[in-house]
């Protein structure tokens, strides 16, 4: 599926000053005026209420707000991330929505989507006005490798509390390829998260460039019939380190692109669903596979 957008020109980064570009630029007063007219959402969070995985929503909301505030500058000051297709998220149901995306960093990919989720919760189509960071969408989840989230220090554990569905990868462990048994508990965890809200998954299962699309996502879609939102991430690997915590470069052209939601028919097979996923998040590989199939047919 060819991406319809083009990057806008991104100026070389300069320290922001009042009266210059960015959030602190000549549109600052206009945005400040907009902020005074914003209708704030009701959180509805009770102090001791928990999500389906036993995490306190009050603490989860506080963590999501904290991470949103301290990472905002990475996406909208030092770099300006384009958000394409946010209008597709405005009318999504409150649960049973699955976001499928390519994968470029461990954490920045998810953090960027959480920024957009909070923004569209306030009916914005971009992340220009950071007040949304105070009202995160707490019923948001993401599928992550257990070894990355649980066994890698305090920061990943805090990120995990903010919405991770940890699964054990059967094909990779400790940075090396392995062959092991699949995590039989993973589908039930993801089903529980879908019943409560929105779930992000990365069918490649790794940030390695060119990694194949695994069929686990297709099986989930076949089993639970969620509304599927394809997502394509652009430029994150150039802006961030591999983990997505530290900036490598500023002024990078980045974009988060949301496509129109898809509701697969009950009759759709695993291969058909898998091919559609690949066309959206790895269009080059999908086109290459299609060309190979055509060439094989002509040879016959």
Describe the structure.
There is one protein chain. The chain has ten helices and nine strands. The chain is of the alpha/beta class. It has one domain. The strands form two sheets. A seven-stranded mixed sheet has the order 1-9-8-2-7-3-4, with helices on both faces. Strands 5-6 form a two-stranded antiparallel ribbon. Strand 5 and strand 6 (176-177) form a beta hairpin. The model is unreliable at 7-24 and 291-297 (pLDDT under 50).
Short summary of the structure?
With 300 residues, this protein is of the alpha/beta class. Helices cover 36% and strands 14% of the residues.
Shape: globular
Tell me the span between the first and last alpha carbons: 27 Å
- Model regions low in confidence, pLDDT < 50 over at least 5 residues: 7-24, 291-297
Question: What about the largest sheet?
Answer: 7 strands, mixed
Radius of gyration: 20 Å
- Find the count of extended strands (DSSP E, 2+ residues): 9
Structural class: alpha/beta
| H/E element sequence | HHEEHEHHEEEHEHEHEHH
Fraction of residues in H or I helices: 25-40%
Major sheet strand order: 1-9-8-2-7-3-4
Strand content: 5-15%
Average pLDDT reading: 83
The helix count comes to 10
Number of domains: 1
Key features of this structure:
300 residues, two-stranded antiparallel sheet, seven-stranded mixed β-sheet, globular, 36% helix
Task: Walk me through the topology.
Layout: H1 28-36, H2 57-76, E1 80-84, E2 97-101, H3 108-121, E3 140-145, H4 146-149, H5 154-161, E4 164-167, E5 172-173, E6 176-177, H6 186-196, E7 198-201, H7 216-224, E8 227-234, H8 236-239, E9 253-258, H9 270-281, H10 283-299
Parallel strand pairs: 1-9, 2-7, 2-8, 3-4, 3-7
Antiparallel strand pairs: 5-6, 8-9
């Amino acid at each position: 599926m060819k991406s319809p957008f083009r990057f806008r020109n991104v100026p070389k980064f300069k320290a922001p000053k009042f009266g210059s570009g960015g959030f602190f630029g000549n549109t600052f007063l206009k945005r400040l005026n907009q902020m005074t007219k914003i209708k704030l959402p009701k959180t509805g969070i009770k102090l001791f209420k928990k999500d389906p995985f036993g995490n306190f929503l009050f603490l989860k909301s506080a963590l999501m707000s904290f991470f949103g505030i301290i990472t905002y500058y990475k996406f909208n000051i030092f770099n300006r991330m384009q958000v394409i297709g946010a209008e597709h998220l405005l009318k999504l149901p409150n649960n049973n929505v699955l976001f499928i995306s390519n994968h470029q960093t461990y954490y920045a990919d998810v953090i960027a989507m959480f920024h957009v989720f909070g923004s569209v919760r306030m009916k914005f189509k971009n992340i220009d006005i950071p007040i949304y960071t105070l009202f995160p969408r707490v019923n948001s989840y993401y599928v992550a490798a257990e070894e990355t989230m649980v066994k890698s220090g305090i920061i990943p554990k805090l990120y995990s509390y903010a919405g991770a569905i940890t699964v054990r990868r059967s094909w990779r462990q400790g940075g090396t390829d392995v062959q092991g048994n699949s995590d039989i508990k993973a589908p039930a965890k993801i089903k529980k998260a879908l019943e409560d809200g929105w779930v992000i998954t990365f069918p490649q299962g790794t940030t390695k460039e060119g990694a194949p699309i695994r069929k686990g996502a297709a099986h989930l879609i076949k089993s639970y019939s969620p509304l599927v939102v394809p997502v394509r991430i652009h430029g994150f690997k150039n802006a961030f380190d591999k983990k997505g915590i530290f900036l490598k470069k500023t002024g990078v052209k980045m974009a988060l692109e949301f496509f129109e939601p898809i509701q697969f028919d009950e009759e759709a097979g695993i291969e058909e669903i898998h091919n559609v996923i690949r066309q959206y998040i790895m269009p080059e590989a999908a086109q290459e596979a299609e060309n190979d199939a055509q060439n094989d047919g002509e040879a016959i």
